[in-house]
Amino acid sequence: MDLRVNDLVWAKMKGYPAWPARISEPKKGHKRLHHYVYFFGTNNYAWILDEHISHHSQELVDAALQKKNVSSPLKAAVEEIVAEAKLNPPSVARQLALKYRKLKEVRSKLKAPKKKFFGVPTLQVHKKGRVRADPYEFDDESSSLPRVPHVPPTTQHIGFIGLGFMGRHIVRRLLETGHHVTVWNRFQERCDEMARRGALRAACPADVIAACDLTFCCVAGPEASKAVLFSHDGVLKGLERARKAGSPDKGYVELTTLDDATSQEIGEAVRFQGGRYLEAQMGYSTREHAQSGMLVVLAAGDPKLFKECETCFHAAVHTAYWVGSEAGPAAQLGLACSAVSGAVCAAVGECLALADRMAVKRKDLLDIAAVAGFKCALVEDKFLQPRQFLSGPSVSIRNQQKHLHLALSLAQSVSHPTHVLATANEMYKQARSQGYDRRDASAVYLATKF
């Protein structure tokens, strides 16, 4: 049932008639399938099952008062909820939502029952049923690492290049789960911060490769990734030294958002020096995902290396999808995911700017859109909270525009028209020109408004 804090309802407790109440915010925790309600007239609180709660309506008021021997406390409670409803009537959008929900309930009762099927677990996705492969046997179908409660840390030494916002949070989670990590970043103070948490510091990327079995790279973009790889003391130099010292087979995992051509170029260079390569694109991943360990990784490349990264992915990532054994598809899929987010934010921002011109409240527009079937967590998170436009970004305007630019370049390489993405890209470029570079991507709304 669609219930929110402060909604007026009627709740039924065992041994009592349905009673006027209000949904309240619990002081401690939540109970599954229950709501914490305040009872009018008695000033008591209780956890009530979802199925024993009904939205307040005049029909329920009439039904309660028409009964014989209505108690005085119930009459007082009815008077309180009626007065409360007059003082704080629900918004137009909320009224529409409740009517729409009731209509759906009536329709569902009239429909013939459908056959039920067993659901597929969300953390183990396959296009078709198949026998689980051995640990290092992969095919080219999409699959994911199974999610288990606890995975002991690997005994391999982990390297990490790049300590931006995403990188720092990933390294913190690796350290918290007992991994041995060596870090490098061009800003020394960020290495110092990780060193205080237990990481080792390296003087250059080549030293990270030399000291570690698996090395992750998470930098600003394709150009930064190439600089780390091809510089004088870069990744390739470290792989070359390891190969000559009789320690080939180093693993290199690229977390940076890349186009497929750059990823393939990096993969070829790494393999040429005897290393193994895995592209692990984070698709549409926000700062909140990094902080809460809810990142989604799309991986392609060396299948054995993907398996070796399991403990690292379990430490810092919610789900890791295996896309294929050739580098490129994961980068393409990651850019497509980010492009969807960018296009949606641009379209919603433009519509909200139009609503402002018509003096329509932003919340009412989004509520009505949700009632009509366009209920999107991304939109609610970014546009229902005005602070998003001004505070620290989830995904910045600058990064979103860079991802759209890469997606457009990908489309250009295969001669595919992308009219909507091209327009959205121009909107983000306009927002950047107006000084919104470091604002959240939802600030594209401000660029179209003013």
UniProtKB/TrEMBL annotation:
Q: Which PROSITE patterns match?
A: PWWP
Predominant localisation class? nucleus
Q: Where in the cell is it found?
A: Chromosome
Name the domain of life: Eukaryota
Record key words, sorted:
Chromosome
**What family is reported?**
Belongs to the HIBADH-related family. NP60 subfamily.
- Which protein are we looking at? Cytokine-like nuclear factor N-PAC
